[in-house]
Write a structure and sequence with these properties.
The complex is a heterohexamer, with 3 copies of chain A (about 120 residues) and 3 copies of chain B (about 500 residues). Chain A contains 2 helices and 7 strands. Chain A has about 120 residues and is α+β, with helices and mostly antiparallel strands. In chain B, α10 (about 200-220) packs parallel to α18 (about 395-425), α13 runs parallel beside α15 (about 355-375) and α15 runs antiparallel to α18. The complex binds adenosine-5'-diphosphate (3 copies).
Chain lengths: ~120, ~500, ~500, ~500, ~120, ~120
């Protein structure tokens, strides 16, 4: 199992979510973070003084999937997150050793995403 | 309230009201008419200030709510004020001032002075005492009713159902408040038979509102999480002290209509004295509350300072037309102490998020009783209601009358309100479900958060909502030209400007 | 507006205005002079209330904006109000009231009554009708113009350029509004030749503002993301319903200056009746809107409740001086229904974030037409404008006059406004770029967010901005002494207090 | 201020005040009495508007603070206003108006007009000039004192100790402000011996407040992080431009009481002219400030637009009763330029977060001097203070008097204030600790954040505070029935609706 | 050493924190995130238009512990976070290679949580 | 490649960012989180009732670097984040298996940080 951790532009998320859902990956989490990278900072003005902001808002998308599905997910992300401008972000893949579904307590890679066969209690 | 003042002008008012065409036709202004206009102008200004107290209550309540219930406070104030406006005009005003029965008035339903002004004037005995336009009297009395109704809801916030409060609002504005105000303001038994003094409504407006709140609260219960498993109260902080502050300052402002407007005219500048008395008490209320809370917990609780102001204002409301300047800071200071001690005590068992039971209830009782202590002979006579207080007369008589009034008002309003809320609870229900309470009234009853961006994830706001800073090419502030340039000149050194 | 009322006083005003030194010199006050002063006092109070409606519009607009555009609303209201103040004084007032031509006035530019009061009085025919100080008339009329201008901008928010709106503001306050208000308020052709009734400006102020908004909107287009790829509208929720509520309550407050102040004096307390009528309609507007939206979508939309209040107020603005009490709740209720249906319908094709097209446009039309239905014979006569409405007279005559007035005002204002905005669009541009719109007007036009801490990452705020809770040694509330102690006594058990 | 106006009425006032019982007894209203009532009504309305300026200052200050200090602004305004109310009534009013000494008054401590009205009237010489109720005069003058005090604190925000500011508040409201206002308003040496013109207090109220602020600031130092290691100023943005906007609009509103109310009556509608003059200057102030800041930094700084309005208002405060309409936009425009340049210059060395030193100090000086330039002969005569300005008279005489007044006021207030703050600093301390400053005054002095949900982690708010969206079964908006259904019908397809 | 990364309902956190503390795991971090999974979205209404929210607020709990203590922690989380309804969340376990205590600079697994034996300076 | 995940005091970030930038590590992300550890809670008061806050605001810094550069980064963090008081935070290092630059789609450790040699398109 792998954790796909992608820093993307906030506006890119919606189409990614839709495609992932269609591809059978409904489960993921996002977090609003600030990133510094190659992208320029901004200078703001307030009552004559300046403030330079180097950190830009990014969305961090976290999605744990079975190892063989990593490329499927990263490709979906790349498809929508790429504008070609500096600041598009990065995707990192980390190893995951264990996964547990809280609702049932079951563990293993079948808990990662929703599966057709699975029973849905509520 | 001074029933026998400037009685001579009444004929003029009647004439004026009855014969506008004549008034228009006449070429020279008459002084009598000008006095009526001046009185009407002052009372309308006062009424407009009191109307704005709705914003004060709204923001007090909103500020003391959590963010997930902030929008509901807006809907609540708009709905209640509107219901009260219609109900009081249709029914309430007639019960309150449409005759001189001991229990309630009987004339003037759906009052329409403009279509038949003589009839209106003949229906309202108070117009014989005060030389103002009938519409001004109705509007002024209505905004008082709306204040009293607004007081009910602070205590119930973050859990009461929309449908529950509108039912009570109709009954309150049409019947409960009007009948009580008839007893004390409109020539009813407490005023006439017992000489109860309540210049602007420590009891009529504030205690009554707080009593309705208490009835609701007992049937409603505390907010989820207010009391721990051990039964100890837990702080559920409101979401915005600045909005609480806005509410308090607007209320303070409105009180300059509330008390000084209750002179119902500009006669001999009395209203200025009432205003000064009011301000001194409010100031002392803040000081009393701040000193008390600091003594008890070593911090200057902001909400308590605000409650102190309100308690001072509520406390001086009944005495404001009856006491001399020197008494005002004393009455206010005591009210400020009472409200803090009251909030802390009540919080142990009951969940009153805004402190209305203390600020309007306890301070309302204190204010009403204070007349029995501080009313000066001069002003008792001027108002022609009741006797001087204990400190002047040495007699407990007036204090007794005041206590009786408080007890009667409390018992009647509590019984009726409890019954109404009980029926609501057993039929349509008084409270949202636990899940709805957790989610907040905004989303549950109003379909959207009061602060959408706080609760809706950024990407759900749509592609256009990426927000500031997200786009690549806004390197330089404001100017798209520069932005375009910066885009093409990004270089190694430009990548991360210092 | 009652042109022939108390005409006799005009000499007194002229004398007073012309001869202040004499007035000062004379030892005894004259009643005539006192009446002028009283009228002036009431009209000034009303004007001040109307001035404060700027805050109402500002917060309505700010609350309905996303947080990234919240500051721009502040800059917009300050700038527009200021431009209007200068432009109306310099040019507008003369066009509106400086003579009795059918199209526009011609005297009184850069009015300076104080330097030459007799001249001012001779320039303004209205001063022969109303006995108030010329400055009070100018100020009262100016704040109306500023309200009308403020209405234009809500519809354009979150995307219009600062430079675009200031240009239109100058033209609107100097020419468009003054000319239209001359036609209907100032003795122009609609008032004189057709007897169009519009007591306080359902058409003059509200419809005109909404018409300017429509012209701007058609050239401006919807906000990015408002309509999905399928063309269906998507909700773009404003960021703060409490601020919307503040706006609505301030507007409601201001309306007690707007309508009752349009009596332009205190004569026979009419203004109190107008106030009551106004309040009944507003209340019914809220009720109508709440019932309608609940019927349609099963939730009590907060913004819609607020729109209902405003629609009720707009609807009663024209009739407020012409109808009896009973008509007010009906007019308001219908306005409340109209505004909700209107917002939902318009939202399908046009992006009007605050609902101004419905609340000021449709309700303004309804209010103007309502005079043709509900105007009572008594009040048509008192105001000496037009005839009684259909429900009294059985005749469609007045309704026709009203419809004509609406059509004329709409067509003229729309054409001129569209032309102005079209020229702006083709020259300096009407709208910020897509990137700027995404980033928000605050940062792009004003250099800083309206809520900096919401958008600036915490560490960028400087080392001093670490914020509450971050520092290690503030273990106990408030008291540094205790904090110091807690620092040195941290132990295993103290590490993580329960 | 016109000392010799309508002097004849004074007997009537005395009679009225002295003999309320008689007034009541008499059957016919007297015109003299009605005039007093009208004057009193206008002055009270004005005073109430000025009172509300407290909310304006509060929100200006709150908006310009970071969120961690937002609640402290509420506590500060309530406390200071309350202290001032008691201190001014007890001591201040007597020093200011209780006699005609050149330095200070000596009678009227703990004024209680109601218990002994003849005495009160005999103590206050100003009541011989103005025919208003004594309480109205006291209240009006008190709210001015409270405004001046409020000005002091904006400069000190985010770091001053609660205990420090209450001490200065007592001294300021009891002594400093009253003595200075006696010199210029109350018949003291600057007014009587030098004919210094200051209609509503550019110097008395605004410069004095800013001077106190400067003294405090010099001893207090900048906020942590304001100046970088290189000594260059760094922006510390306030947290809410909408609240700044609210503050500015409320202040603008209040100014319609401030300047026009300073006529101390309704005589010949002069107050309407003063209001118009005031508005023109404020508008020009906004325009001046916006143009200046745009020229300097290519963005329309929102706070600067607000500062421009205030500077325009402060600038016109002294001249408002002395100048013709045409002068107002000029005075305001210059004030708008001054405030922007002033803020930028001062910001280089001193940390004045709200710009009070410029908006009230520099613009106050400009306004006072402007009388020496623009005062018209007609109005100098009407007010019976000083001579026409340079542009009419060609003489520098009045300008000299104005400059002397400014210098005297500044020097005296600065010395005394500096001494008071110095003693406070050396004894109880003026400033919170660095750690407390980082944590914010809200949590440190008031025990809780002004915005609790912003600073308290969600789970700490208790189990009941899970917030919207968290619960599983609220699938459909609002309706618990649907929610229950949705719970049981969740299926594969229903899991993730589009 | 392992990083336990749990997405849970916000209201479940308080009892988990208490139990972990009692069990000797005072050190952890939380973050407010938004998650998408099997849980239904919500439809909101605003002035007649709709907005469908697919992301629900979740709390992400991060706690690094020694490898042998992982099950102790996950069991504590499961005990309190399970309601049995869809949306209860997931627990993931990732390998951690190094841990450093900033205050002292020391590294190794003894820095992860507080230990009885350890010296506490301030 | 490694992910350096550091929980630090918010006020420590600015100098760390500057040093990392100077050392050639412009790319990183931060997130405002809440942490519980050895640090004491705070007691707050509101209208007479109390509320004890156990979680303190921390900044979580995430930076993916080549394995051999880990110590360079952690030392920079330690240099500025250490006050010596309880609450200074922790640094964890996790393995990263893959890194992709969204803008270009290229992957491998050369995408992690900006390199002198690299082409910068926009
Ligand atoms: N090595 C990294 N570690 C952590 N976050 C990173 C790293 N590199 C990039 N990011 C995140 O990705 C965002 C975009 O990176 P940036 O370097 O600006 O874009 P590009 O990859 O187009 O050069 C950054 O703001 C940051 O949040
Ligand atoms: N594979 C995953 N990767 C990242 N986050 C996940 C993953 N699966 C679940 N989550 C998180 O857990 C939350 C609950 O998951 P959900 O699927 O709704 O519950 P359940 O496990 O009961 O079916 C989601 O909202 C999301 O935050
Ligand atoms: N094992 C851990 N897992 C996750 N976060 C941790 C861990 N240990 C510490 N932290 C984070 O580091 C912060 C500081 O830790 P703390 O124990 O107070 O400091 P110290 O290391 O000085 O004892 C915590 O608030 C928490 O955010």
């Amino acid at each position: 199992m792998k954790l796909i951790m992608a820093y993307i532009r906030p506006e890119a998320f919606e189409p990614i979510r839709e495609d992932l859902l269609a591809a059978g990956f409904p489960s993921l989490s996002i977090d609003e973070v600030k990133g510094s990278g190659r992208q320029r900072g901004m200078t703001e003005r307030y009552r004559g003084s300046q403030l330079t902001i180097n950190l830009r808002p990014k969305l961090k998308l976290e999605c744990v999937v079975e190892s063989e599905q990593v490329s499927l997910v990263t490709e979906t992300i790349l498809r929508h997150a790429r504008t070609g401008d500096v600041g598009d972000g990065k995707i990192f893949v980390l190893p995951v050793e264990q996964a547990i579904r809280v609702r049932t307590g079951e563990s293993g890679q079948e808990v990662l995403q929703a599966h057709e066969s699975e029973e849905v209690p509520a | 309230m001074r029933p026998s003042f400037l009685r001579a002008l009444v004929l003029a008012v009647l004439a004026l009201v009855a014969l506008p065409a004549v008034a228009v036709a006449q070429d020279k202004p008459s002084l009598t008419q000008t006095v009526v206009e001046l009185n009407t102008a002052w009372v309308m200004v006062a009424a407009i200030l009191v109307m704005f107290m709705q914003a004060g209550f709204a923001f007090l309540e909103i500020g003391f709510s959590r963010a997930k219930n902030a929008g509901a406070g807006v809907a609540k104030i708009l709905t209640n004020f509107s219901i009260a406006a219609i109900a009081y005009w249709a029914v309430g005003f007639a019960l309150a001032f449409g005759g001189s029965g001991l229990i309630a008035g009987t004339e003037g339903f759906f009052l329409d002075v403009s279509s038949d002004p003589t009839k209106a004037a003949s229906q309202i005995p108070l117009l014989e005492t005060y030389t103002i336009a009938p519409s001004a009297l109705l509007f002024f009395q209505f905004v008082f009713c709306a204040v009293s109704l607004a007081i009910v809801w602070g205590t119930t916030l973050e859990r009461i159902k929309y449908s529950a409060y509108i039912i009570y609002a109709i009954i309150f504005a049409a019947v409960i408040y009007p009948v009580l105000s008839h007893w004390i303001f409109g020539g009813g038994w407490l005023q006439v038979n017992f000489g109860m003094q309540d210049f602007a409504g420590s009891t009529v407006v504030h205690l009554i509102g707080a009593t309705g709140a208490l009835a609701a609260l007992l049937l409603l219960g505390p907010r989820r999480g207010k009391f721990g498993p051990d039964g100890r109260p837990r702080a559920i902080p409101g979401h915005s002290m600045p909005l609480v502050g806005l509410g308090v300052l607007i209320l303070w402002l409105g009180w300059f209509g509330f008390n000084p407007g209750s002179t119902l005219g500009a006669a001999d500048g009395r209203f200025a004295e009432v205003a000064l008395v009011t301000n001194l008490a409010a100031a002392a209320g803040v000081i009393g509350a701040v000193l008390t809370i600091y003594a008890l917990q070593r911090t200057i609780d902001i909400g308590m300072a605000g409650n102190g102001a309100i308690a001072g204002l509520v406390g001086i409301t009944a005495p404001s037309g009856y006491v001399e300047f020197w008494a005002a800071p004393i009455i206010g200071l005591v009210a400020g102490v009472i409200v803090v001690v009251g909030v802390l005590a009540i919080d142990k068992k009951l969940d009153d998020p805004v402190g209305a039971l203390s600020a309007h209830g306890l301070a309302g009782i204190w204010g009403t009783l204070a007349c029995g202590l501080f009313t000066s002979p001069r002003l008792a006579e001027l108002n022609a209601v009741g006797d001087p207080g204990l400190f002047y007369s040495g007699s407990f008589g007036q204090l007794g009358a005041q206590a009786l009034g408080v007890a009667a008002a409390f018992l009647v309003v509590f019984s009726v309100s409890f019954a109404v809320f009980y029926v609501i609870k057993k039929t349509i229900g008084l409270r949202v479900t636990a899940e709805q309470e957790d989610a907040g009234l905004d989303i549950v009853e109003h379909g959207m958060y009061g602060y959408p961006e706080q609760f809706i994830p950024l990407p759900e706001m749509g592609a256009a909502s990426s927000g500031p800073l997200a786009r690549p090419s806004l390197g330089a502030t404001g100017s798209p030209a520069t932005a375009a340039t910066s885009r093409s000149t990004t270089s190694r050194t430009g990548e991360v400007p210092a």
